[in-house]
């Protein structure tokens, strides 16, 4: 089968690979649509943090060159032993996070914090290939759903947003600011708007802000030349910091209202000096968010995508063939000039096609 394979920073190739065999509790899917995100770009640009190139991953058991792709959809083509509830031809959305189901965090319902957690496409082979093997615990069966395979490939980033919104306890009528509306912030804007919040999108890229506006941001603020101080009205109840930039996190602490919540979404490359005196005096809450809880967040994500399918083509107007992952995906995303918010790939393609919303 054709597969994209990560060998190291700057070394991602399209290769012929053996077809993966599903083991107990696993299914093999023919990949329909697979996305890449900032995590993949980070691995491409820097040393690998996730792909177990040099040392075996303790939970996945994977070692060596890795097929990326942790945001994808596909059709079931084979089932391994001990699999029920999946038939050949079923469309699935892959949540990608694999949890054990038996440790204390899993039993508490926080499967995203499973002590044996690993992610398909980060710690083991993923979906940027013609075929992928996935544990059924990370595959949501969409058989009978009207959702298209392209939309289903957005379920994973949407569920990250759903989880962040739950962590931030966003409620109707609240004022929300999302700093950085790229591959995750865009979806957070949508999830916040769906929760009935008034979301302000902040970014330096006018094209991203236009997308955020179309997806439900009530206000957009371009900070490419000015500061974030131009946000008018009352201070926000909840701020989502999605850029991972230190100055943005520091600014977010002073931006949020007294008693407000700051949800740290973007990953800071280094520890940041935050003004904890202000956190104390203003009774702020600093909230972390990690991946998503498969059982809770992924079905909500699919519902949000299905609620207004026609709007989603704007985040990924074109879907590309696998051989364009580096040139059209990783390199432009690393430069910050990718032509669309999400870069999606369809292993069956020879040339690009439009995103299929089903509408
Ligand atoms: Zn991702
Ligand atoms: Zn567990």
The biggest beta sheet reads:
8 strands, mixed
Distance between the termini: 32 Å
Q: What is the CATH third-level topology name of the largest domain? A: Quinone Oxidoreductase, Chain A, domain 1
Mean pLDDT: 96
By CATH, the architecture of the largest domain is named: Alpha-Beta Complex
CATH class of the largest domain: Alpha Beta
How many strands appear in the DSSP assignment?
18
Shape: globular
Low-pLDDT stretches: none
- Tally the helices: 10
Give the % helix. 10-25%
CATH superfamily name of the largest domain? Answer: Medium-chain alcohol dehydrogenases, catalytic domain
Domains (count) = 2
Distinct small molecules bound, one entry per kind: zinc ion
Give the amount of beta strand, in percent. 15-25%
Radius of gyration: 20 Å
Which structural class should the secondary elements be placed in?
alpha/beta
Order of helices and strands: EEEHEEEHEEEHHEHEHEEHEHEHEHEE
Could you describe the 3D structure shown?
Strands 3, 4, 5, 8, 9, 16, 17 and 18 form an 8-stranded mixed β-sheet that branches. Strands 12-11-10-13-14-15 form a 6-stranded parallel β-sheet, with helices on both faces. Strands 1-2 form a two-stranded antiparallel sheet. It has 2 domains: 2-157 and 292-354, Quinone Oxidoreductase, Chain A, domain 1 (Alpha-Beta Complex), CATH 3.90.180; 169-288, NAD(P)-binding Rossmann-like Domain (Rossmann fold, 3-Layer(aba) Sandwich), CATH 3.40.50. The protein is of the alpha/beta class. It has helices spanning 38-45, 104-107, 149-152, 155-167, 185-194, 206-214, 246-255, 276-281, 294-307, 325-335, and strands at 2-8, 11-16, 26-36, 71-79, 91-94, 97-98, 118-119, 131-135, 139-141, 175-179, 198-203, 219-222, 238-241, 261-264, 285-288, 318-320, 343-345, 353-354. It contains 10 helices and 18 strands. The model has no long low-confidence stretch (mean pLDDT 96). Strand 16 (318-320), helix 10 and strand 17 (343-345) form a beta-alpha-beta unit. One zinc ion binds at residues 99-103, 105-106, 114-116.
